[in-house]
Structures are given as C-alpha cells and as structure tokens.
Write a structure and sequence with these properties.
The protein is α/β, with parallel strands linked by helices. It has a domain at about 1-175 and about 200-225 and about 275-280: 3-Layer(aba) Sandwich (Rossmann fold). Helix content is about 35%, strand content about 15%. It has helices at about 10-20, 80-105, 140-150, 175-185, 200-215, 230-240, 255-260, 265-270, 275-280, 290-299; strands spanning about 1-5, 25-30, 45, 65-70, 110-115, 160-165, 165-170, 200, 220-225. It has a seven-stranded parallel β-sheet, sandwiched between helices. A two-stranded parallel sheet has the order 7-8. Strand 5 (about 110-115), helix 3 and strand 6 (about 160-165) form a beta-alpha-beta unit. Helix 1 (about 10-20) packs across helix 5 (about 200-215). It is globular, with a radius of gyration of 19 Å. The two termini are about 35 Å apart.
C-alpha cells in the first residue's frame, strides 16, 4: 500500500511509519523540513507548507491511505492567545487542505485517518464513550474543530476513521517528562490525584490504528485509550513502583495553577473514558494496565 502521513515525523507518526515500513508498505511523509530525516526507497519525505498543494497534491492520486496527525503539542507552555491560535491552525488548516485535495483528486484514497483527542468529552463528568457528546471547554472544542475539518471527506465515499487519542506512552513523547519528578524522588499525586489520567501504550496505539485500517467495517470515532480506568494517583504510584522510588505527599493544586496557568487543566482535571467501540471491534490490548505498560517501557 501507499500511505501518506501528515505529521509523520512526530512521535506518533514515527512509530506508525515504522510499522508500515516493517510490513513492506511505502510511506510518504508531508513535512515542512524534508531535509531533517533521510528518505529511502520505501519512505519519502515530501515538502509542504500546510497551506497549498504545491509539490505534493499529485501524490493523493497514488495513495491508498491518507493520515492526518498534524498538530502543535499541547504541552507547549504557556497557553497564550497566540499559542492557542497555533494549536488551532496547526490542526484545522492542514485538515481542510487535505480534505479539499482528496475531494478534487482523480483517484481518491480508500481510507482517511483523522487524529483527535480524548479531551473531546471534557474534563469532568461521568465516564464517557464514543456516544458521549462533546464538551464546551477549550480542549473539547479544539478536538471538535480538528475532526470537523475533514468530515466532508465522508461525502465522497472515503472511509474515515477518527482517533480520539489519550497520552501515548513510549520512549519519546511525554513519558520522560511525566516520570521526571518520580526519578528525582519527588513523586506523588498531583492535586487531589483523583482526576483521570488517560493513557495508552504506543504499541497499542499503533496496533489499534492498524487494526481499524484493516477492518473494513471500521469508520467514525474510536477512543484510543487503555481499558483500565487510571487516576493521576494510580498512575504515579505505578511509576514509583516500577522505578523503585518513594511515593510522597501530593503536589498542591494551587501551586500547579500558579506555575502552569490555564495549562494546569491537563494535569489537575480529567474525565474517565472507555474504549468501547475499539473493544467491540475485536482489538486485544497488549498493555491494558499501567503497571505492565510502565514495566515494558521503564523496567
């Protein structure tokens, strides 16, 4: 298969690309810096500006799958007005461009995969599944606009899969930062510790994406999150056990609010969610709980 990935040089995109290449597929990665990574016979780095089709638009006619993973990391601090605009524009603008290009292509891909976020459901409330409506806070509405940017693709018969992804744990990504306080013997719950901490092992994230692509009946939204509900306290306690570090007193919520500003909601708030549709589709998790996931990555 020929696979086109927007955002393919990031943490998630790199892991997915490696999986496709291992199975003999060809991957074309849209990037603003094509010289930053080597191309090869099976992997091509293709320059784009995320605003026009110049230099890459013709490739859509040759693709079997197009994947939209682009989006500026929410861990970029502080959340200024300009930063929030960058979060929006880095997600929505590429999505609109990809959708328009596919709609006008001579030969359309059979599958389109759209990244989104598990915060679609908001930061509080009863446990959510894919049937739960979106919330109205900033993160939720950002996810809604991210998804809506490519919704028109469904009108031309392309099978569209939406990935509402939790924090992916791997050798890169956010795990090194999340584990740093524990490594420095300062581990403990953040705030009350009762808030949800949504996560998924990177191998389960890749496995779930490949599973949904292969399932001809898979379309619409899927929560890519571990099946074991995990609180902030549960996760940090598991981290301390795996790293053989003490589990101390909580970090006060007011301190985190003062330091992080609005970004504190990523740490101090969180709604429990379930991967109902993914489980119903038959996907079997390799790492369903935090301890086995962290032992695999850090043990």
């Amino acid at each position: 298969m020929n696979v086109l990935i927007c955002g393919g040089s990031g943490f998630l995109g790199s892991a997915l690309t490696k999986s496709f290449l291992a199975d003999g597929h060809k991957v074309f990665i849209l990037t603003r810096s094509p010289d930053g990574a080597p191309s090869g016979e099976s992997r091509q780095m293709v320059r784009w500006d995320a605003k026009t089709t110049e230099g890459w638009g013709h490739l859509v006619n040759e693709m079997d799958i197009v994947i939209h993973l682009a989006g500026k990391s929410l861990s970029s601090w502080p959340w200024t007005v300009a930063k929030k605009k960058a979060f929006h524009d880095s997600r929505v603008t590429p999505g609109l461009l990809l959708a328009q290009t596919i709609q006008t292509a001579d030969r359309r891909p059979g599958i389109f995969v759209q990244q989104s976020g598990i915060n679609y459901y908001g930061l509080r409330g009863d446990p959510a599944d894919e049937s739960t409506p979106p919330a109205d806070d900033f993160l939720a509405q950002l996810a809604v606009q991210w998804e809506d940017a490519t919704k028109s693709i469904e009108e031309v018969g392309v099978r569209r899969i939406v990935l509402r992804t939790a924090v992916a744990l791997g050798q890169g990504g956010l795990l090194p930062l999340m584990s740093l306080p524990v490594r420095l013997f300062a581990g403990g719950p953040l705030g009350s510790g009762k808030q949800a901490l949504p996560w998924i092992h990177i191998r389960d994230w890749v496995g779930a994406v490949r599973h949904l692509i292969a399932d001809e009946n898979a379309r619409g939204a899927y929560n890519l999150i571990a099946p074991t509900p995990t609180s902030n306290a549960d996760f940090n306690k598991a981290l301390a056990e795996v790293l053989h570090r003490p589990y101390w007193f909580p970090t006060p919520a007011f301190l985190l609010r003062n330091v992080l500003g609005e970004m504190n909601v990523l740490i101090l708030e969180g709604r429990f969610s379930t991967p109902k549709r993914l489980i119903e589709s038959g996907y079997e998790y390799q790492f369903p709980g935090p301890r086995e996931a962290l032992r695999d990555l850090l043990g």
